What does this fold into?
Amino acid sequence: MAPMENKTLFGDPDEFETPEVKAHTEDKYDPVRYYCDLFSKGMQYKWAGRVYVDLYSGSGKCRIKGTNKILLGSSLIALSVEVPFDRYVFCESNPVRLAALVERVKRMYPERNVQFVEGDCNEQIQRIRDLIPKNNLVLCFVDPYNCDIRYETLKSLTAGRKVDLLCLLAFQMDAKRAKVHYLNPENRKLDDMLGNPNWRDRWAEEQLKDKDFARFLALEFARSMQGLGYRRTELADMKVIKITGKHVPLYYLALFSKDPMAFKYWDQVLKYAPRQRGLFD
It folds into this structure.
């Protein structure tokens, strides 16, 4: 299977809210675009319906800092796939960005079945869940700005349903930088994300082996997903997104699924998604 062209990754400027992002965002959205396309095509006739859920949907477009390049956000990327999903559910806590997304969807994809939810996905998860037909297959993209997603949120979303999760794990850019704060037992942010207040005990043992804090947390999150019935995802199965032009990792992009076919698609993404841009690109 040959890699797809990048044309669906970029858009045109308009008058709506367009946040500024760093260049590595392109490296994040490209595998998301590729996986959404494979997933929507491959599952087209195998389920009563396919639903794309974006828990941090943003405004739909962003501009790469220092350039005039307009990137499509994950929400518009999912809407632009060759074989559209049957339903889309977009959640966004920022009202200005959500309003921009609503207008862009109306303008660009008025025929799509799109539901919008305003608010923190951790607080709105029951409302999001109610918008998903029970007999449908779900692809959920989880792209928080830091370690805000909660284990209980994902547990609620996936209970009794077939949900594949594509998760951004910001353990390098957030948890590793704020390591001292997160190791304080009074800080429960990682406890809530991992669904386990005892992770510090395991870290106390692992750090003696000269383990990296971010890698440790990524494996702890994978362990938590196993607790929800998902297949084990190893570090080698996660795509590392780095600062453009440097070898400094920022976060992992990881797939969690109960179906071997999903990992066959993900292997295609890891193999064919364009290489990370660097100093000489």
